Task: structure prediction
Amino acid sequence: MRLFLFFIAITLPAAEKADWIWSAGHVITMDRERRVIADGAIAIQGDRIVGVGTRSEIDARFKAAKRIDRRDAVIAPGLIDTHTHAPMSLFRGLADDRRLQEWLEKFIFPAEAKNVDAEFVRWGTRLACLEMVLSGTTTYTDMYYFEEVIAEETKAAGLRGVLGQTVIGFPVPDAKTPQEGLARTERFLQRFQNDPLIVPAPAPHAVYTTPDDVLRGARALANKYKVPMLIHLSETKRENEESKAKRGMTPTQLLESLGALEGRTLGAHGVWLEDGDLDILKRRGVGLAHCPSSNSKLASGVARVPRILELGIAMGLGTDGFAGSNNDANLFEEMDLAAKMQKVSSLNPELLPARQALEMATVIGAKALGLEKQIGSLENGKRADVILVRTDAPHAVPMYDVVSQMVYALKGQDVNDVMVNGKLIVKDRKVLTLDAAKILAKAREYRQRVAQSVGIR
Amino acid sequence: MRLFLFFIAITLPAAEKADWIWSAGHVITMDRERRVIADGAIAIQGDRIVGVGTRSEIDARFKAAKRIDRRDAVIAPGLIDTHTHAPMSLFRGLADDRRLQEWLEKFIFPAEAKNVDAEFVRWGTRLACLEMVLSGTTTYTDMYYFEEVIAEETKAAGLRGVLGQTVIGFPVPDAKTPQEGLARTERFLQRFQNDPLIVPAPAPHAVYTTPDDVLRGARALANKYKVPMLIHLSETKRENEESKAKRGMTPTQLLESLGALEGRTLGAHGVWLEDGDLDILKRRGVGLAHCPSSNSKLASGVARVPRILELGIAMGLGTDGFAGSNNDANLFEEMDLAAKMQKVSSLNPELLPARQALEMATVIGAKALGLEKQIGSLENGKRADVILVRTDAPHAVPMYDVVSQMVYALKGQDVNDVMVNGKLIVKDRKVLTLDAAKILAKAREYRQRVAQSVGIR
Result:
């Protein structure tokens, strides 16, 4: 019998070399046909996926130096967060259940003014990366201050980031004026251009906080460096109403009138977009970030996601900030909530089915960021951003439909292994690139400092 | 120095004996003052809580045979699920994103007719208990068939249950007629009366499925055995509209007209309750179960929770079934979603704050079940239903407000230890009373059988 097997082996063609083979009970490819491969596997060489198929196909074709094989698991593309503010992890739950103005003016702005510096941003980013990667996020999109520090830490953690340096019309921790902010942004774009993991971006905060010339300046920088521009867009009813009252235009119309949508743009939230806005966004190829936890917790409203997706506008999922708007950064929860919010607000349970929620967290998110050729699905030639999610917990069995299970039953904590750009970042829930104990200790130190600064215990 | 300490020790009064002391960074008592005790501890003797205080107070007063001490954790009352269908865990995610009628007629009813027997119920209950206790649920409320089997398995698992034997107007797996169902219910009530863990109950399914005389019969049984009656109530718009069209009354008015609310009652869902209904429910002291995951996923609607609670009607939280209506049984998710659903549907972020969501899952849930003297808070004399939730994961730090953290950041999977009625059920996330591997294997077997029975792969 052994001899016979030997004979078979030597008659097969010489195996191709791969760095890794991962196999599992199911591979969710999110390729064009949305194939789910039972007893599937993928092969990885360098930073790329080089094979996707059944385990027997992949094993026949490749010989890998390292393997992860887990029968009771699902392999899926790494999840893509299209909107967050990573360092705000240090403000997690600082002020909940409050009206936006009170929340901003009494807590967030004072806490930021008194605490945010490069060091705060560094530790906050580390904490956020730890949390994100442990719930399967491999690419995230950020808007904050000292974004070069965020880029350094994101690279060190091994995550992929579309990282937006904030420009805004008033003094902020990293710039006294918007002009200083634009200058800082350009240095940031120069430093990280062509980075394998980082897409640096200018991020004017929003039309209601950023003067027209600064919006134009941010657009010009984005186009000069061929990167997207990130901006908050029609998050609240008030934002829209004030824009119409003061400028006679919606925020989208205002951006369009300034030429600020002429180039790749990602708008966050889009809760109050009107039909005319959608026409403009569709024509300009603008991507959007839907943030269901934030929009529900801050009571911003329910974005018209099914209509937006039907128009072919790429709307991904975002977790938003940690301080009151969402107290964690977990795309499994955003997928689940995105689907539920649409159903209950329309009284139609067929809206935003599981498949579409998973698309938003993967392929559509990639498209919103302009990264659809690199990430978002498991296909040959794409970057190896891959997660392995265990399906052996009591809440994970039985499993009738793998995609439904991903969206409605599995949790971020079921993520067992994570690879970004061909590099293993999480193995058996241990983050290999970050010192978790040190980060948690530092976060607790910051807790005391921040609490004192806003007068809570 | 040693001699001096010895001297102090012998001058203290002799310590009281306790079976257990649990201590942690915070104890959330949910007592009348809603005290949160920093560096807190509780003492347990037999099935009761005998001490609640700071760790130093408890250590000075009690000497315990066994201890759990974890600095980076929160001790809280065990969570209370006021509505579920435990054995449906075996249908988890069988049919998602569908309209209720299609879901029921094409999937759930056929799947139940072909698969549900005592053995199915036994394994489904075991799986549900495993999942519930691992996410901190210590008491749950059930409505299903073969409820005596559910009671046996709930006792074996060591959970507390308010368990409702279904009576309904058509043939079901455990009764060919409603009269047979009522007879079976009475045997069930006799068998489990005065059980320390089980409250047996009659559970007429709903007004639209259960004839008037059967509703009256269920009420009579509940009153005879001094237990609550459980019923689905105003879950969907259609249920209300049909009741009004056919009977000229809302479901609540109909029950009231039949005398069926004269005695302790728990109504599940209550999404479409009208003002007049609330008056009746308040007057009758009816408890309600709010099921945010189910109501959103099945697009039933948003219950008027703040109004209901304001009226003093006890509305707890329920996870509902597993098959399409909610694909898991996790009260941490229900607390979070209950708060978010109210905020976004009203555009008011102050509605249903974290504290109220936690009340619904503890003290208010206990009141809805008529068990407020036994469970729901950590107070001397109450049953020892206690959970210890770890707060050392990246998503759990920093922590500014313990209650906010419980609702908006911590997860079911952070639950580390669980005690019910003074007995340790979960230690370090291992369920001591259930054979997890065997249950998961059996659930996978059922998966194949059920899938085949409804013609899916």
